[in-house]
Design goal:
Strand content: 25-35%
Helix content: 25-40%
CATH architecture: 4-Layer Sandwich
CATH class: Alpha Beta
Number of helices: 6
CATH topology: Purple Acid Phosphatase, chain A, domain 2
Distance between the termini: 33 Å
Radius of gyration: 17 Å
Oligomer: single chain
Length: about 260
């Protein structure tokens, strides 16, 4: 089973990059059994709308994970409640719209997709470790891809170890900077601390420097705008054993569209 995961898609530059480079990746690395992406920044850098969601699904993406910014567009909140292909972190409290996991099918292949959010340096929500236990216990016969949207590398590393042998992959998102620690853990779980960002890399994690620097220099509020410079697609390619669901290989992807 081959799975492509596209790291955090950042605004219209990220959508443009994904649209241009996905066919290139399919030609060079595909075909893929499942294509996944993180969409929490897809609409102008914060949240998602129906229009941006359909634009991304039209590229052949099967399901999209998210994170703490998924709530930033009012339209996106309603979208979560009606479209099971778009996930929000499963460890938000009961009563939040949407769902935190799903099971995809492609022919005889099945893949669970789970979205979790960290708590270190982030909002105090329910425990991602215990929520993962709960979900995996109810679907033990399906290999699970886990997008762990978290700030602290220590928390991501800990969850990777905790789920080793139980999840097919634990892939970190949120920091928008791709890490170089991809590996298949001893129990057969593919892991990377952060898959990176798709969009303008000549930026401060996707935002133009001329809006970000005044904030650092003065501490005063300033307007952030999504960068369209240095476009690149970040992500990972995963290969799972069709019989066992264990990871066989994980490879980083850093494909440039422009410099």
């Amino acid at each position: 089973m081959k799975i492509l995961f596209i790291g955090d898609i950042m605004g219209s530059p990220g959508r443009k990059t994904a649209a241009a480079l996905l066919p290139v990746l399919q030609s060079a690395m595909g075909p893929f059994d499942f294509i996944l992406a993180n969409c929490e920044n897809a609409a102008a850098g914060r949240g998602i709308t129906g229009k941006t969601a359909e634009e991304l699904f039209s590229l052949g993406i099967d399901a999209m994970t998210s994170g703490n910014h998924i709530w930033d567009k009012n339209e996106g909140v309603a979208l979560l409640a009606g479209d099971g292909r778009i996930l929000r972190p499963a460890n938000y409290p009961e009563g939040c719209p949407g769902q935190g996991w799903t099971i995809l099918s492609s022919g005889k292949l099945r893949l669970g997709v789970m979205n979790l959010q960290g708590r270190v340096f982030m909002s105090p929500i329910d425990c991602p470790f215990r929520k993962a236990d709960e979900i995996l216990a109810g679907a033990a016969d399906v290999p699970f891809f886990v997008d762990f949207h978290a700030e602290a590398s220590s928390e991501k590393k800990a969850l990777g170890h905790y789920l080793d042998g139980r999840a097919a992959a634990v892939i970190g998102t949120h920091t928008h900077v791709q890490t170089a620690d991809e590996e298949v853990l001893p129990g057969g779980t593919a892991y990377i601390t952060d898959a990176g960002m798709t969009g303008g890399h000549r930026s401060s994690i996707g935002m133009k420097f001329d809006g970000v620097l005044p904030r650092f220099l003065t501490g005063m509020p300033s307007k952030f705008e999504v960068s369209g410079d240095g476009l690149a697609l970040n992500g990972v390619l995963l290969t799972l054993d069709d019989e066992t669901g264990r990871a066989m290989e994980i490879s980083r992807i850093f494909e440039r569209l422009s410099r």
